[in-house]
Amino acid sequence: MTTRCALYLRVSLDRTGDHLAVDRQREDCLEIARLRGWTVVGEYVDNSISASNAAKVRPGYERLVSDFDAGAFDALVCWDLDRLTRQPRQLEDWIDAAEERGLRLVTANGEADLGTDGGRMFARVKAAVARSEVERKSARQTRALRQRAERGRLPAGVRLTGYATDGTVDEVEASVVREMFERFLVGDSLKAIAADLERRGIVTRSGRPWNPSSVRTVLLNPRYAGLSVYKGAPVVKDGERVPGAWEPIVTEATYDAVRARLADPARKSNRKGTHRRHLGSGLFLCGECDKPMRTHNSRYRCPDAHLMRSRGQVDDFVLRVVRARLARPDLRDLLASSNDDESASLTAEIEDQRRRLAAIEHDYDEGHIDGRRYAEASGKARARLDAAQARRTALTAGSAASGILDAPDPVAAFDSASLGARRTVIDALLSVRLMRAPVGSRTFNPDSVHIEWRAPSAPSTSTPA
After folding, report:
1. CA-wise closest residue to 276 among 256, 264, 292
2. Structural domains in the chain?
């Protein structure tokens, strides 16, 4: 009876793409089949695919296993066992196939034949050694990547949107990245940002349309703030973030503020929501229960059904109030977020608390303090760090609103801004509470909309002309 033989050919990396390494393996494997009188009935190829990671899909290998299970061949030839697998567990499956189902598996280099005791022992030793080499190589690569990140060096690999391959800023792409950060910070949703970029014909580096997920990926990348990154997080050494050897596209404060907003669970459930289509949805409050109002058709409604108001009338009134305030000459005195001294002081406080945390961890590792003292000291430092970061985030959000407040014509800037930006300005300037409309009233009563200004210097509530 003729023995049906399959060939498995694989090379980890084909640098030229000409398949020459695979062709050489094929020639040697065909010669083994000829010498043994086997008939080749199938060929399975994985070109430029590694076998070091068991989770990595190898299409040719998967077909090989499937066809063997279906009884398509009785013998298998590969150039070397490490071409077939570098995983001891996978090798054991083939050894079981040889022992239980009579599979003849030989290598073209003559080192292994699973049909013999000695061949199986050699295969197991070789697979264990190969696996050990893979693990050592992985450990060396991991250490090298970590060391590179700790020194702030430019990561190797695919270039980042906004940068050239040498780490210099690509101003065309960088302007889009800055826009994403700025728009998200003033209240635009990921969905709104992606939709607007698609509408304008702006695509990703790979030529695909932007979507909320790809925008989020950009916003979460610390490299845009000039920070060195390892495993997706900023590298911290001696309590301080390690700067990268490239120019930042956004400030560290902006990155922290955006990341804090992305991580805020309230953004998905209340007035800070991610994708609002109406001016006051989730922003204006019910005057009865103080819960954020929702929209229903053309009305704002309380989630507990205390009241319902005409959305158009309320929006028109609030917009007139805001425009009147934006037209005042003392507008620029409103927000404390323009205070550069406070921002610098907060940044210094943040760095100081990070250094303190690192020192506390060092003292604990060296046995200078016990667990109780460590928990107490680190808890205080983290509380101060969180407070400083929260305040700096608030300042950064205020500075985003200042982009409109500091414009030559704030009213025009407000009217031309995105919905998210206008909501941010309204939230920075005032709070809006909707009261019940007078019974039997057929006209809009401005007294049923209570305006409370946030700034101490703000004017008293009045109906604009």
Report:
1. 292
2. 4-136 (3.40.50.1390)
